[in-house]
Amino acid sequence: METMMKSLIFGLSANPPTGDGGHYTIVKYFAQSGMFDEILVVPVYTHMFQEKRGKVMVDYEKRVEMCKLCFLDASTQQCKVRISLVEQQVFQKKLREGGAGSGSGSPPGEAVKVGTADVVDHLVQDNPGVDYGFVVGTDTYRDLCNLKWRRAKELLDLLHFQVVERKGLPSPAEIPVQRLPARVDFHTLHELKEISSTSCRSSSDECEVRKVVKSNVVDYIVSNRLYGFTEDKKHHQMNRNRKSVLIFASIGIVSAFIFGMWRSKKIATTKH
């Protein structure tokens, strides 16, 4: 009997993706675990909650690029890490099928929502010979097993869940829930730190961000001025430029004054 390919879905906002001790550590751990043939890193295309769309997430294309910079080097000979655009593909498919809130006066796409079940449907339909796993944290695992997700029962039966324990929370294996997944593994990653994408976005200190986000990702963020600390850097540079202009202007004024005094003195000496 032919062995099914095993693929692990790792979804995230990637706004930005964190490095050692964060998202990168999780992807690298599973890539090296020998459990999967590929890791699908799936950046969220658009927020499920309409009120948050466009307010907290930078452009999708830029988040995809940050994922490439962050995760692709985690691939091993046995496990390929790929950046998947499946959420964008599902969104556009729904849009074509008329899920744009037509007749409501809403802008195209505003009413379209893409959930985990939609993504899994698309992947399974396109790749029927693949066995899919799904990475979740402790809090997400609890919500899913308490059936708070849309089509939660189907997902619990279909996917092989990989639960990463979160510091400060009870072990997910001990959490009372309504329904358990058909297949689930629990993982404790001691390398994980208490870092978040939110703190990176709100930081005003580039040096602090570089401690939790890979340097090549931070370089990309800075060059595209994606978050607050890059604006602070921009303003700092502008202030430096203004100071330089003032210094050179002052030097010019002083030089002109000295030259004027010297010339006046020379003319006076010549007359005498």
UniProtKB/TrEMBL annotation:
Pathway in which this enzyme or protein is active: Cofactor biosynthesis; NAD(+) biosynthesis
Keyword Transferase belongs to the record: yes
InterPro entries: Cyt_trans-like, NadD/NMNAT, Rossmann-like_a/b/a_fold
Alphabetized Pfam families for the sequence: CTP_transf_like
Domain of life from the UniProt record: Eukaryota
Keywords for this protein: ATP-binding, Membrane, NAD, Nucleotide-binding, Nucleotidyltransferase, Pyridine nucleotide biosynthesis, Transferase, Transmembrane, Transmembrane helix
Residue stretches in coiled coil: none
Domain Cytidyltransferase-like positions: 22-201
An annotated GO BP: NAD+ biosynthetic process
Residues that span the membrane, as ranges: 244-262
Gene Ontology molecular functions: adenylyltransferase activity; ATP binding
PANTHER family: NICOTINATE-NUCLEOTIDE ADENYLYLTRANSFERASE-RELATED, PHOSPHOPANTETHEINE ADENYLYLTRANSFERASE
Protein name, entry field: Cytidyltransferase-like domain-containing protein
